[in-house]
């Protein structure tokens, strides 16, 4: 599959042949959904936490003697049925939501989403990204000249570049990531994927070897 190469002025300067094993894979919605759900679950952080009767403070003394009072038997005033007692079946921070997906399945789903981006003209290839002053205005101006314009864009860099990261982080709906760290969830969140020619090689070297 061939696709156009742009410069930062939005001009088409040539074309590049995309690797078939990455950008020409048949889409399987079930697999992509399974992988995206697992990635979402792995990011989940549990903050709600309730104490059981063994953790709540107090309750060391039996409230009253076992027999002779006419009242129900109780061994602790920190029982779940008492006010101030422990909580039964409440949320706990020791819950595990992580879902394991085999590496081959994760990579296959990644290639499927990349292929869909290419087929739907949502993959933009740049010669390179160069910012003289590293200002947000420069990056925003370059993006406006490309097909993505102001729509959700994920910029995948061949290597971490602090100048580009700092210049992009204040642009709405625009995110920066290393190409070697791409995943299905990030790609589904953004409509467009912006890659450099070097970025294609980075993806090929990272995910096919």
Describe the structure.
It is a single chain. Helix content is 33%, strand content 14%. It has 209 residues and is an alpha/beta fold. It has two domains: 150 residues, 3-Layer(aba) Sandwich (Ribosomal Protein L4, Chain: A); 49 residues, no CATH class. Strands 2-1-3-6-4-5 form a six-stranded mixed β-sheet. Helix 4 crosses helix 5. The longest helix is centred in the middle third of the chain and has 17 residues.
SSE layout:
Layout: E1 2-6, E2 12-17, H1 20-23, H2 29-43, H3 103-119, E3 123-126, H4 136-144, E4 153-157, H5 162-168, E5 174-178, H6 184-189, E6 192-196, H7 197-207
Parallel strand pairs: 1-3, 3-6, 4-5, 4-6
Antiparallel strand pairs: 1-2
Series of secondary-structure elements, N-terminal to C-terminal: EEHHHEHEHEHEH
Please summarize the sheet with the most strands: 6 strands, mixed
Q: Mean pLDDT, nearest integer?
A: 92
Calculate the terminal CA-CA distance, rounded to whole Å.
21 Å
Helix content: 25-40%
Strand content: 5-15%
Report a brief summary of the structure.
The protein is α/β, with parallel strands linked by helices and 209 residues long.
Please give a handful of descriptors for the protein shown:
single chain; 209 residues; Ribosomal Protein L4, Chain: A; 2 domains; six-stranded mixed β-sheet; 33% helix; elongated
